[in-house]
Amino acid sequence: MMVSGPLCRVESSFMTEAKSYWRLVVFRCVSCGRNEAFAEESCAVEPREDQIRATTYQAICRHCGWQGEAHGISAVEMRSGVERRTAIRNK
Ligand SMILES: [Zn+2]
């Protein structure tokens, strides 16, 4: 691979690409008993399951509106993913 010249900017554009991760954790609501209490957060590093379980979240129930602390260890479901932000700059 002999690539050179001013058009070769693959490396620098890769460096400016910011990735952020999100995770959604679902809990059983302590008020209504449904699995409708959600906590969401975004973070700079990829979330690991053991980290999620060690974290206390502020959860909100979509069914009854209950809000409170929920421990990751009691999560009934967790989802995570990557959000790619390519050079989005406000001003
Ligand atoms: Zn509820």
Walkthrough of the structure:
The structure is a single chain. The chain has helices at 10-16, 49-53; strands at residues 17-27, 37-43, 56-61, 67-71, 77-86. With 91 residues, the protein is mainly beta. The protein has one domain (19-83). Strands 4-3-2-1-5 form a five-stranded antiparallel β-sheet. The model has no long low-confidence stretch (mean pLDDT 82). Residues 29, 31-32, 34, 36, 61, 63-64, 66 line the site of zinc ion. Zinc ion binds next to loops.
Essential attributes:
elongated; binds zinc ion; 43% strand; 91 residues; mainly beta; 2 helices
Topology:
Blueprint: H1 10-16, E1 17-27, E2 37-43, H2 49-53, E3 56-61, E4 67-71, E5 77-86
Antiparallel strand pairs: 1-2, 1-5, 2-3, 3-4
This protein binds zinc ion (ZN).
Residues 29, 31-32, 34, 36, 61, 63-64, 66 line the site of zinc ion (ZN).
How many β strands by DSSP?
Answer: 5
Cα separation of the termini: 37 Å
**What structural category characterises the helix and strand content?**
mainly beta
Order of strands across the main sheet: 4-3-2-1-5
- How large, in whole angstroms, is the Cα Rg? 19 Å
User: In terms of quaternary structure, what is this?
Assistant: single chain
Number of helices: 2
